[in-house]
Structure formats: structure tokens, C-alpha cells
What we know:
Layout: H1 3-14, H2 19-30, H3 33-46, E1 49-50, E2 53-54, H4 63-66, H5 74-91, H6 98-109
Antiparallel strand pairs: 1-2
Amino acid sequence: MSPDRILALQRNLGKNFDGKVLSYKKALEEKPVETLAFLMEIEDKQVPVADNMEVEVSIDLTEESLRSYKHFTAKAFSAVSKMLQTEKEKRNCGIISSDILKQVISDHKKFNFPFFK
């Protein structure tokens, strides 16, 4: 083999060298931590706890009311709205209640990080 062919072969082999790392990074970025922090803050501020029993309430998801929250970002707001709306449609409910919020938080916490080998 000529030296040029050897270099071309090495360049071709190195094209996807970091493919696994890039896929790992993409999987981590799909479920950011800021979304979970925002969901937890919504739960803390909007779901009252009375005598060890949680009361069923409707969650206010208007952007104006959530804008003052510490963990509010446009990206987190969009992701949270989409997740809660999907869960609401799955349950066929009219409102987004505290049960729906708790289920979305539980599902978000169960996210398994991909293993890199």
C-alpha cells in the first residue's frame, strides 16, 4: 500500500471515533436536570400538604405565574408543559392536577443514564 492509501484508510477509520461519546452526550442532554428542578419547584409552591395528606389541586401552568420561579427557563417551561400535557392526555383528564404532576416527576426521576463502553 502506498503511504497516501494508508493515511486515507486511517482517516476513514477515525471518522466515527467519538460516535459513542456524542450519542451519550445527546442522551444526557435530552433530559436536563433543570427540568426536574423546575418540576420540583412547581410541586413545592403549588401543591399544599395538610396533616400528612396531600390535597388534589389544579396546577397553574401559565407562563406569567411561573416566570417568577427560581428554576424558570424558556426551555424548561416548554419541556414541562409538553410532559404534563402528554400525561394529561394519556389519563384523559380535563385539568392538570397534582397527581399528574407527581407522576411526571416520578417518571422524570426514573430516567436511566446510558452506559458508555
